């Protein structure tokens, strides 16, 4: 236990030394600013495939794991953005939205490079193109998932009609949705830790930080929701009309700090392993 505690202390000290709180603030603000351009592009992409309603469903999936007090105000604004008419995928606005939404990926890359203490030597334009590619793949995957979510209740309804005995499994289906959300989060974290930093990390190397990030994110989301249920009025009296924005920023800032600390933990474990190998040699 003392050995594991020393690794956590090393990770925390490295988090402070690498300006982890400032990096988390950068990631949180950039993510919030990138969210709406991403959804604008998502709407244009869904319209290209002939179903703009999928974008609204995809936005709901994005916010499903968020506490209701955080997600509800943002969901309302997202709905306003998604219901505005736009000319289609090939517009300048959609292209700009794709570019600006990739800023969130770049912020995460900066945080991971700082945590793993590596420097990316590739040109900025190549990194930006890679980030745009991640956004494109993410948008397509999200639309595919949204299609399955829309299709799921229809299939379930047909199954209940044919097999009424399946009705007690409805709660299990709801639980499965949350499990899918957790799996998606885990998959996104694996992709981020393995391929976004300047050096390619092995799966075993990044798993500890990923598991910690998922666990702490779930615990924090539940605790933050409980806190807001009692003290949300504090944000309203302090920040007035921008209270919902500040609540979202605090939420994203905390999640970003957990994410960066996960990278620092992976790096601390690797440093400890190198020290042990050197001692044995």
Structure commentary:
The chain is mainly α and 281 residues long. The chain has one domain (2-280). 84% of the residues lie in helices and 0% in strands. It has helices at residues 2-17, 20-48, 53-63, 68-82, 92-101, 103-116, 124-162, 170-195, 203-239, 243-280. Helix 2 (20-48) packs across helix 10, helix 4 (68-82) crosses helix 10 and helix 9 runs antiparallel to helix 10. The model has no long low-confidence stretch (mean pLDDT 79).
Strand content is: under 5%
Main sheet properties: none
**Could you give the count of β-strands?**
0
Supply the helix-strand structural class.
mainly alpha
Give the % helix.
Answer: over 70%
Q: Low-confidence stretches at least 5 residues in length (pLDDT < 50)?
A: none
Q: CA-to-CA gap between the ends? A: 24 Å
Spatial shape: globular
* SSE order: HHHHHHHHHH
What is the helix tally?
Answer: 10
Rg, nearest Å? 21 Å
Mean pLDDT: 79
Q: Please, how many domains? A: 1
